[in-house]
Amino acid sequence: MEPLRFIAEDGARADPFPLSPEELTRGYREVVRARVFDERALTLQRQGKLSVYPPYKGQEAAQVGAALALDPGDWLVPSYRETAAALACGLSMSQAILYWRADPAGWRYPDDLRVLPFYIPIATQLLHAVGVASAGRYQGEDWVALTFIGDGGSSEGDFHEALNFAAVFQAPMVMVVQNNGWAISVPTEKQMRNPRIADRAAGYGIPGVVVDGNDLAAVWHVTREAVARARAGEGPTLIEAVTYRVGPHTSSDDPGRYRSADAGAAWLARDPVSRLRAALEGLGVWDDAREEALRAEIAEEFAAAVREADAAPEPEPQQIVEQVFETMTPDARAAWEVLRRG
Amino acid sequence: MTVTTPDRPQVAPESATATTTYREAVREAIRAAMRADDRVFLMGEDVGRYGGCYAVSMGLLEEFGEERIRDTPLSESAFVGAGIGAAMAGMRPIVEIMTVNFSLLALDQILNTAATVLHMSGGLFNVPLVIRMATGGGRQLAAQHSHSLEGWYAHIPGLKVVAPGTVEDAGGMLAPALTDPDPVLIFENALLYNREGPAPDPERPVDLVHAAVRRPGRDVSLITYGGSLHKTLEAAEALEQSGISAEVIDLRVLRPLDTETVLASVAHTHRVVLIDEGWKTGSLAAEVIARIGERAFYDLDVPPARVCSAEVPLPYAKHLEEAALPSVERIVAAARKVVGGG
Question: Residue A195 carries which DSSP code?
Answer without folding.
Answer: -
